[in-house]
Hints:
This protein is α+β, with helices and mostly antiparallel strands. It is built from 3 helices and 8 strands. An 8-stranded mixed β-sheet has the order 2-3-4-1-5-8-7-6. The longest helix has 11 residues, at about 15-25.
Amino acid sequence: MLGRLNHVAMAVPDLAAAVAVYRDTLGAEVTEPQALPEHGVTVVFIDLGNTKVELLEPLGNNSPIAAFLEKNPAGGMHHVCYEVTDILAARDKLRAGGARILGDGNPKIGAHGRPVLFLHPKDFMGTLVELEEVSESG
């Protein structure tokens, strides 16, 4: 079911400061910020060739990232994202196995313009898991 690791997401309290660290200190190329109101975040990506790092900042008062940052004021790893070729088949198989899908269980469009779902961290050793649908060729 799982494909490659698409990205590791880091919640940050100040996106501009985090971008400066990755760009200026680590020499990374960072995308322009992208607001995703339906997910309550603003994101940037750092492409590492074999995967990406996503930096997330809260967007709006109901952002799930704001709650994460209340518990982790300096920020930290928020989730890992794995690729799947058929997100609905993956969802149905996971549900049949007892995994909990967050939200209403239907995919939303993510930052890459592809369907995504999130899986409950208590079902995956305390780690929030995102699934992103990609074509078989990647």
